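INPUT
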Amino acid sequence: MHLMYFTEQPMSAYDASEGLKYGATALTFSNKHFDPVAGSRLYNEYLEQYVYAEEVGVDGIMLNEHHNAPFCMQAKANIFAAVLAGATKRVKIVMLGNPLPLAENPIRLAEELAMIDMISKGRLVSGFVRGGGQEQLATGVNPAYNRERFEEAHDLIVKTWTVPGPFRWEGTHYQHRVVNPWALPLQKPYPRVWIPGVISKETIIWAARQRYPYIALNTSIPQTKQIWKLYDETATAVGYKSGPENRGYLARIHVAETEERATQNARQFMWMQGEFTGLAHPVWANPSGYFSPGGRRNFVEFAVGRAKNPRGNPTFEEQLADGMIICGTPKQVLPRIRHLLEETRPGILAVWGNDGNVSHRDSMTCIRLLAQEVFPQVREWAKELGLNSPFEAEAPVSIAYAGDLKQSTVAAE
Amino acid sequence: MTAWVERTVEIAGTKVHVTRGGKGPPVLVLHRDIGMPATSSFHDELVKSADVIIPHHPGWGSSPRAEWMRSVRDLAVIHRGLLAELHIQQAVLIGLGFGGWIAAEMATMAPADLAKLVLVAPMGVKPSQGDILDQAIVSYIDYVRAGFHDQNAFDKTYDAEPSVDQLETWDIAREMCFRIAWKPYMYSQTLPHLLRNVKIPTLLVWGDQDKIVPVSAADRYLAALPNAKLEVIRDCGHIVDLEQPVRLAELVMPFIAR
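OUTPUT
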């Protein structure tokens, strides 16, 4: 079991009532509400929390990025990864992930990630994402080619890492005269790639075909089971048997010394007063061409305010009831985590511990309790349940490096 | 009542749905970024005295998407191919909004083989003041409503609460706009230069309340086109053909006939 700590790095020091008044806390919600003095303090607190998480024993720090919004202060995940590469000694630095379609030059990403891998002495896990809908608008990247750019940038980065340069790349969305960066990853054949996502079928199938672990981002247990069903079917079709080493899960778990404090702080998971990633405008969250054509009908109704978000928008109480938010003392949260492990069988568990206005002090307490009073038991259970991480299972980095593929029946015939 | 005939014409490997009706000089009508409604009084006016050809752009309406298409200039070449395939020479082009951009591009390609050009609040050039409204950050309904000065005209065309089918149609149309006109959004940096070659008579029509393409864009068209004149319609938004179809026809018909 690989146990990671995650926070969205909320820019909590802004007047939340302004966001409510404006009706959205993303994309066009003015950055006049951003306070760099508070921002500087928060960045340093988050860094202190990450370093502490390593000290008390977590296996990895999960990082991500978002743009034009207070719910996440990381505008470039690689910057925090680089800082952690130097500031920590042991933890995996898990990017979940770099939004590939936003890159105009994926070679630069390949270089940055290679540098992070070398500086951290091989601790990088290089996850990739498509980037949310509004991220495309915030960075001026065409949402209609999001998936094409994701796949092509991935292929280019992997080639850059694995095929000696110089070579030329003449693709659909990327063209490069000379690919030959003098920075290559320390880890061979290349750093592990994990793919986080919600319920986008195309991404699940793509990840399974690559044999990259898929990290379900706080999906409900039934949704998560659907994801694994699709992943497993795809794995079988391409010739391998998937298991816990292919499965990650991001859970929102806040622990405190008392139940009362834990519940109070866990309410901060609702801090953005909207869906998963803030109070988003449905049009920006789902620009035309970004989502799969199969979901078009549901999303257009949502976009004009006639239907609920197809991704769901449950209340705090509902989320507590169905385990999408877990909070309490270490003793109280453990049975719920056990349930989660039994039901979804992940080999990677990311714990989103703190959000919103949870104080630095309470965040540090949460991290300590997780690492010292929750994770040891989770590790025991993981052994009992056979939930091995990709590292423990010594899983191949990708399907191209697998030695255990079953020949498909078609090929055998 | 003129009967409209529908057919499919294959151009550059892509199927283009074409509606055609009427007798007279050939007039190619190029529709908007939002597609077009099933009926239009402006089209009905035109068909009384012209051979009216109305294609659906590939990716809009009944024409399937051409996955390879990347620019509005590609679209212009498709419609030039359509004219050739239909053996039409000296056509009048009427471009509505986004369709006006396509028509302008078509005119730059072979300026002498068109009869006349009618550009109704065309996109395609960067306005000297203000920007073309970015549909990416407004809802489908809000975007189309912004095209009407008189909201009753919107209600009459699309219903006050447009159907889900209509919303889907707008989403597909919007995706196509992103695919071919994302950046720079809805204009070309080279078109104003190329337009200097277009010496055929050109009628520019703009609603004085256009909230989608600022009227200042008309100045850039007038500066580039040596033989153009501008008619501004009072109390009218961007979607002139649906908001004031009769007034638009009154301006266009004599211009075509002349």
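end of record. The mean pLDDT of chain A is 93.
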